[in-house]
Design goal:
By secondary structure, this protein is mostly helical. It is about 75% helix and about 0% strand.
Amino acid sequence: MMSDETQDPREALAQAYADFAALPCGAIVLADLDQQFGGNPFAADNPHLTSHRCGHLAVISYILTQIANATEPQRQETANG
């Protein structure tokens, strides 16, 4: 892993998401976000509501992707190390 001074800003951001998720309060917040916004986005006969809910899912997906991006290099380093 790179030092903080040379770390790619995208990696640093992903790591910040992962660090937050690893905290007890982070797990509580993520569970709440998933409960509030992670359900089925499709609303029968209401494309506007469906679109709105798909936006919710996109945010949840982004957060989870950032966490996964931070943990994947650690897994590779452990496997290679």
